[in-house]
């Protein structure tokens, strides 16, 4: 009997050992699992860092080496124009002023207090940048008189004109009107409305141009984009006219085609965008676009323009085949005319943020002399690009 109990005890002890062993294995499996989880996290972190580095590299390459932008800068440099940058208080503008001069793109007048600009930007070499302070400029009273002469019929008093002439944007616009500079860039730290109103009041639209409008030059990322055959699009109006009429939309299309050719070097194929393609939907907003198309065609029968087109029908060849067969523009558009500012503004930001395009603008078309706005989210490279385009705009016929 005792032998039986001893055997039983031994069996129990063996089973206990086995259970302990099994528990040890279980712990080891848990450890391995945890290690694998840790590794997974490490791999995810490495992957994320690599993706971020790639995006950074691509953005840098798109900005610095984009051949499209390089060509614009090269053409601008040949002209030797003088451009005024109104916002000496903004570090991005100060850097851009120095870069534009160093790269030989234009001669630059920067507005602001020279001492403050140099103190706030100690690492920027401002050699060759002409700094003018509206507060101390001997030209200011002359500009105030010019402003009063131009706006007194609209009710402006001499005192008001004098006060406004101290404002950097007004001062810059008055320099342009007086012929002391060839073009103006502002808006890095001022709203579009505040940037463009002085220009609209003083420089005004060019003779024969019914309205000033704005556009973005959308430059495809380095390496290209499958929907952008020519390396860039013109988007209009994405920054100024809130709800253009059919007549105004037609003007925006006509002048944007000219911009595409003369500034961007594109052979324009203009798409009048809508939420409808060739009558697929019926609505007053669609009729506004088809009426604009008819006006534009009547004014310029040679222009390669079509509508109304949805965005996919405008730029995707396979969609164009089924939605707008036979159209010379559909599937290949490079000038996109948006029906209103909501669509135009949202459209350019989607293309910039999701598509990785460089958005240069909002640039203006139709002013008697070149004035360009900047986005308040701009980088100093964007300001340099706007300077180059402003110089080219002095050549528009
Ligand atoms: C630019 C803007 C301020 C002009 O509108 P406004 O302030 O109401 O201007 P006013 O009506 O006072 O016009 C001022 C002058 O500019 C002229 N003008 C206004 N818009 C014009 C245009 N598109 N083309 C030509 N002239 C224009 C007016 O005829 C007026 O001339 P006058 O004073 O000699 O008679 C306005 O269109 C605007 O705010 N647009 C939206 C800008 C924006 O927020 N964009 C989104 C971000 S990018």
Arrangement of strands in the largest sheet: 8-7-9-6-5-10
β-sheet strand percentage: 5-15%
Q: What fold name goes in the CATH topology slot of the largest domain?
A: Rossmann fold
Biggest pleated-sheet summary: 6 strands, mixed
| Number of distinct beta strands | 11
Verbal overview:
The protein is α/β, with parallel strands linked by helices and 397 residues long. The chain has two domains: 66-204 and 368-397, Rossmann fold; 210-366, Rossmann fold (3-Layer(aba) Sandwich), CATH 3.40.50.10750. Helix content is 52%, strand content 12%. The chain is built from 14 helices and eleven strands. The chain has a six-stranded mixed sheet, sandwiched between helices. A five-stranded parallel sheet has the order 3-2-1-4-11, with helices on both faces. Strand 1 (82-85), helix 3 (91-102) and strand 2 form a beta-alpha-beta unit. Helix 2 packs across helix 14 (380-393), helix 5 crosses helix 7 and helix 9 (246-262) crosses helix 10. The protein is extended and about 125 Å long. The N and C termini lie far apart (119 Å). Coenzyme A (COA) is lined by residues 154, 192-193, 196-197, 200-201, 205, 211-212, 239-242, 345, 362. Coenzyme A binds at residues 154, 192-193, 196-197, 200-201, 205, 211-212, 239-242, 345, 362.
């Amino acid at each position: 009997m005792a032998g039986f109990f001893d055997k039983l005890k031994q069996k129990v002890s063996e089973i206990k050992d086995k259970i302990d062993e099994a528990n040890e294995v279980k712990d080891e499996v848990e450890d391995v699992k945890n290690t694998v989880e840790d590794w997974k996290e490490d791999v995810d972190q490495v992957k994320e860092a690599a993706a971020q580095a790639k995006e950074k590299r691509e953005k840098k390459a798109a900005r610095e080496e984009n051949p499209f932008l390089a060509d614009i800068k090269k053409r601008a440099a040949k002209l030797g124009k003088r451009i005024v940058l109104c916002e000496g208080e903004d570090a991005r503008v100060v850097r851009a002023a120095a870069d534009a001069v160093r790269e030989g793109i234009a001669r630059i007048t920067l507005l602001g207090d020279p001492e403050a600009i140099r103190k706030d930007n100690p690492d920027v070499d401002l050699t060759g940048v002409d700094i003018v302070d509206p507060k101390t400029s001997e030209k200011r009273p002359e500009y105030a008189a010019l402003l009063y002469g131009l706006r007194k019929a609209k009710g402006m008093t001499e005192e008001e004109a004098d006060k406004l002439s101290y404002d950097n944007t007004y001062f810059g616009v008055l320099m342009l009107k007086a012929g002391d500079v060839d073009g103006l860039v502002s808006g890095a730290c001022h709203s579009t409305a505040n940037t463009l109103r002085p220009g609209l009041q003083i420089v005004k639209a060019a003779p024969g141009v019914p309205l000033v409008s704005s556009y973005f030059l959308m430059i495809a990322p380095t390496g290209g984009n499958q929907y952008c055959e020519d390396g860039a699009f013109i988007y209009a109006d994405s920054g100024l006219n809130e709800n253009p009429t059919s007549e105004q939309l037609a003007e925006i299309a006509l002048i944007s085609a000219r911009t595409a050719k003369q500034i961007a070097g594109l052979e324009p194929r203009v798409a009048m965008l809508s939420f409808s393609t060739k009558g697929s939907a019926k609505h007053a907003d669609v009729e506004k676009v088809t009426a604009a198309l008819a006006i534009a065609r009547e004014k310029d029968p040679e222009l390669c323009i079509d509508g109304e087109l949805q965005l996919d029908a405008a730029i995707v060849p396979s969609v164009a085949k089924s939605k707008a067969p036979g159209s010379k523009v559909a599937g290949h558009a490079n000038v996109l005319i948006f029906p209103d500012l909501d669509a135009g503004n949202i459209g350019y930001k989607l293309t910039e943020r999701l598509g990785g395009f460089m958005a240069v603008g909002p640039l203006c078309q139709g002013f008697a002399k070149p004035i360009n706005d900047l986005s308040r989210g701009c980088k100093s490279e964007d300001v340099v690009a706007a300077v180059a385009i402003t110089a080219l705009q002095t050549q528009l016929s």
